[in-house]
Every structure is written in C-alpha cells, then in structure tokens.
TrEMBL record:
One of its GO terms (molecular function) is tRNA binding. InterPro entries: Arc1-like_N (IPR053836), Glutathione-S-Trfase_C_sf (IPR036282), NA-bd_OB-fold (IPR012340), tRNA-bd_dom (IPR002547), Tyrosine-tRNA_ligase_regulator (IPR051270). Residues 237-340 form the TRNA-binding domain. It is found in: Cytoplasm. Its main location: cytoplasm. Residues 177-191 have a biased composition (Polar residues). Keywords: Cytoplasm, Protein biosynthesis, RNA-binding, tRNA-binding. GO terms for biological process: translation. GO terms for cellular component: cytoplasm; protein-containing complex. This is tRNA-binding domain-containing protein. Residues 192-231 have a biased composition (Basic and acidic residues). Residues 168-231 are annotated as: Disordered.
Length: 398
C-alpha cells in the first residue's frame, strides 16, 4: 500500500504541475490538493482555483476515469496502450477543437509519460500514434522542464491542414505529369499510325486487352478482400456485447438439471433478471448470494431446461475446466454499470443474433492475464472502480 500511495502522490504532483502550466496557475496555491488520490476531485479543484468554468461532461470524465484506472503491470498496460493507439489514429488530440489540447489531454499525458519512458524501443514502435500525440502535447504545452523528452525519429506531427496541402500539390503535379505523358503518348501513336508497318497487330491488341482485364479483376478481388476483413473485424468487436455489473440477490438449484443454477440478478433495472448458469458443480448457491458478477445482458432470452434465462454470467475457467468462477467486479463498481474497453467504441446490439454467431467469435478473445485481470485481446474489463478480476490467472472467459 505504501508503494501505491507513493505512486499516487508522484502522479498527482505531475498532474498538478501540468494543469497549472496549461491554465497559467501558480502550483504553490494547490500544494494541499496533491494529497488527493481521486484525479476527478483533483481536476475539479484546480479548475475552481483557476476561475475557469467547470467542465465535467461525459467525455472529459471518460478520460479522467481512464487516467485514474490505468494499469501498472506491463501486460495490461500494453493492451490499454494498444487501444489508445487505435483511438488516436484519426485525431490529433483526445478532446478539443482541432489541434488545441484539452485538460483531458494534459492529465492523460502526465499519467502515461513515465510509463512510456520506460517502455523498450520494440514496444514503442508499436505505438506510433501515441508517440506522435505525446510529442505534440509536450511541444504544444512547452513541458520541457517538467518531463523528459521522448525522442521520436519517425512519428513527427504535422498539422492536418498542412498535410492535405502538400498532398493536393503532389496530386496536382502528378496529374499534370500524367496528362502530359498521355498527350505525348497520343501524339506518338498518331505519328506511328501513319506508317503502314506500324499498324496495330491484332494479337498484341488482344493481349493488351486481356492484361487490362486481369489487372482490373485483381484490383476488384483485393478490394473485396479488404471489405470482408473490415466486416469480419466488426463481427468480433467486443463493443457488440452489452456487459454489465450485476448483484446476485439469490441463487438456487435448477429444478431439472443437476449441472445448472438459477440466479436472480440486479442490473439496475426495475425488475431483476433471471439467469441460468452452468455453475452447480463449482459454486454453492448460498455462496453466490450478494455476490457481484459480470454478465452479458443482450443475449437472446430463452429457456434452458424449461427455465427462462435472460443473460449470461461471464466466468473464468482454468485450462482443464476443473476450476470455474464468475468474474468479480471491484467494490467501487456501480450496479448496472456497463463495462468499457479502452480505445474501443461502438454501440452494443439490442439483441445478439444467434445465427451470426457473434458471441462465438468474440469469446475466444476473452481471457485473464497473468495477474488475473479480465481482458479482451489484452484490454482490461474496466469499471469506474477499476478492472474486473478473477483468482484464476491466464484463464479463458465464457
């Protein structure tokens, strides 16, 4: 605990100094706020001291939550950074208008910077968009005295407008060159046509036509493959699932199946959900009472051995399936809260379509890391209170 407290204090000092520079404040007047572990409270106190209007909209709070819950172990950290890299692929800053960094950018930068400094070069090379963003924030905010420079050789930031201008100029020149070449070719063809021995050979003409058709067919096939790949990625995105934090009010044995239990689970709706789970061999019904769980709530409702089930409790299992337990949300998680995955956005399906086998495509990518943190492709299951976990490391999740 002492080490973690030291980390929080050091982290908060960096956040205070960074935000004060961003807002042109004297950090000395906020010395007491450094002891505040909650980044949200720290941020709101600094804004209050600056006289700036309080900005507590959902997007700002989303990134403050991201900074506060950022994992410290290398495996989970790698997955989250990969998600952030994807998120930054199409934009210059996390929030804000155009190219101006927001307070959210400054806070996330202050938290990530020391972790990025310690990453091996091989790992840094996998994060070009994150490194470009870090370099841009550091230069834009003039953080040279506060943070060590992360040297970037390839990931150099260029304003989007400037990039487009260069591209337009290059495209224009290329177009002119192409047009000139076509005119020259046409002129040469006309001259050649005047000579009887240069008349077009039918065999050559047919061969050229076939080559053009083959090229067009290849391009069409490549385009089709790319479209199929995009559609496939959509099919396996965890954003299709509505995963929520639930609380089991009571559990009992299934009346006609020895391997099944029936649970009544509160997910924040007016009425609890009834869920049937294959946990009878692994859990005592009494032990599940008042236990927090993680469940998918947009599976198609249906009967399992004549008992209606309206969800799917996600459980971790060891390799030989001798130990199975429901995933455990942290104490700070709210009942009914939707699980989030850093860098992955998208609206869940209203109801999953069993014919598309969406769940079957996603679950192979669900597993716990070596610390027992539940992940999708290495990106943690996050709540407002932290990641969901299991006592079983390197487990499959279904």
């Amino acid at each position: 605990m002492a080490a973690n407290g030291s980390f929080n204090l050091d982290r908060n000092q960096k956040i205070v100094l960074s935000l004060c520079k961003h807002l042109s404040l004297d950090p000395k007047i906020l010395s007491d706020d450094v002891k505040e572990n909650d980044i949200k409270s720290l941020y709101l106190n600094i804004l209050k001291s600056s006289g700036a209007p309080l900005n507590d909209n959902d997007e700002v709070m989303k990134w403050i939550k991201f900074a506060g819950c950022f994992p410290l172990d290398s495996n989970s950290c790698s997955g989250v950074l990969s998600g952030l890299n994807d998120d930054l692929a199409q934009k210059s800053v996390l929030l804000g208008n155009g190219l101006k960094p927001s307070e959210a950018d400054v806070i996330v930068f202050a938290v990530l910077h020391p972790l990025l400094i310690g990453l091996p070069n091989a790992e840094k090379e996998k994060l070009p968009h994150v490194l470009r963003w870090v370099d841009y924030i550091q230069n834009k905010e003039d953080f040279g005295e506060l943070f060590e420079k992360i040297l970037l050789e390839k990931a150099k930031f260029e304003p989007q407008g400037a990039t487009n201008t260069v591209k337009v100029e290059v495209d224009s020149d290329a177009k002119k060159t192409s047009q000139s070449t076509k005119i020259a070719d046409k002129s040469q063809s006309t001259k050649s046509a005047d000579k009887p021995e240069a008349a077009m050979n039918p065999k050559k003409r047919d061969a050229g036509k076939k080559a053009t058709q083959d090229k067009e067919a290849t391009q069409e096939k490549k385009k089709s493959s790319e479209t199929e790949a995009v559609e496939k990625d959509k099919d396996i995105s965890v954003s299709l699932l509505n995963i929520q934090v639930g609380l089991i009010h009571k559990a009992w044995k299934h009346p006609s199946a020895d391997s099944l239990l029936v649970e009544e689970i509160d997910v924040g709706d007016a009425k609890p959900r009834q869920v049937v789970s294959g946990l009878a061999k692994f859990c005592n019904p009494d032990d599940l009472k008042n236990r927090r769980v993680v469940l998918i709530t947009n599976v198609k409702p249906g009967k399992l051995r004549d008992v209606m089930s309206e969800g799917l409790v996600l459980c971790a299992s060891n390799e030989d399936h001798t130990i199975v337990e429901p995933l455990l949300p942290p104490e700070g998680a709210k009942i009914g809260e939707c699980i989030s995955f850093s860098g992955i956005d998208g609206k869940p399906e209203d109801v999953l379509n069993p014919k598309k086998k969406q769940l079957e495509k996603i679950t192979p990518h669900l597993f716990t890391d070596d610390k027992g943190v539940a992940t999708f492709k290495g990106i943690p299951f996050m709540t407002c209170g932290g990641p969901c976990t299991s006592s079983i490391p390197k487990a499959s999740i279904k």
